Amino acid sequence: RSAPKVQRVNFPMRKGAAVEMAQCTSLKNVVVSVGWDIGGMSVDLDVSAVFFDKEAKNVGAVYYDNKRQCGVVHTGDNQTGEGEGDDETINVDLMKVPGHILQIFFVVNIYTKDVTFDTLKNAYVRISDSHGQEMLRFDINDRCTSNSHGSGLIISRFCRSS
């Protein structure tokens, strides 16, 4: 008798939730995307990846002005939120992330002055595989009430395990 097929499921994340991705050992690439609607005004959200070593020392970052480092690529800065679907994306080639990087934090910041998360419409973060299959989704407006007046969020942390 053979084992059942592996099934991928996606689900909405809750604030503070942790997901063990150890079962995804075949996962080689991930895509972290953020999207939002403008609601009558241009809003600049920025997604970034920040790298840390075993001493928790910051050893680099990928963001709108440093688009490529350590197997991680930022696809470009959307300063308005216009258009359908994902507005900013970071692609991560997990096989190219150097061994000394043990953690990658993904953060979203609002660059537009006097705009906070509670003024955005349909803001979300999602993590997909390289084929576009969504694995995790965090709807910022629905789930982030305790920090909705802020302008920055840690949205995900990838940790290398031994």
Could you characterize what this model shows?
The chain is mainly beta and 162 residues long. The protein has one domain (28-159): Lipoxygenase-1. Helices cover 2% and strands 41% of the residues. The protein is built from one helix and eleven strands. The strands form two sheets. Strands 1-10-9-2-7-6-5 form a seven-stranded mixed β-sheet. Strands 4-3-8-11 form a four-stranded antiparallel β-sheet, with no helix packed on it. Residues 12-146 form the TerD domain. Pfam families: TerD. It comes from Alexandrium catenella. This is TerD domain-containing protein.
In short:
With 162 residues, this protein is mostly beta strands.
For the record, the CATH architecture stands as: Sandwich
Please estimate the helix content. under 10%
Indicate how many domains the architecture comprises: 1
Q: Please mark out the parts with pLDDT under 50 across 5 or more consecutive residues, or reply none.
A: 1-10
Q: Please tally the β strands and state the result.
A: 11
InterPro entries: Stress/Tellurium_Resist, TerD
Organism: Alexandrium catenella (Red tide dinoflagellate)
Protein name: TerD domain-containing protein
Domain TerD: 12-146
Topology readout:
Blueprint: E1 11-12, E2 29-37, E3 45-52, E4 58-62, E5 68-69, E6 72-74, E7 88-93, E8 103-110, E9 121-129, E10 134-139, H1 140-143, E11 152-159
Parallel strand pairs: 1-10
Antiparallel strand pairs: 2-7, 2-9, 3-4, 3-8, 5-6, 6-7, 8-11, 9-10
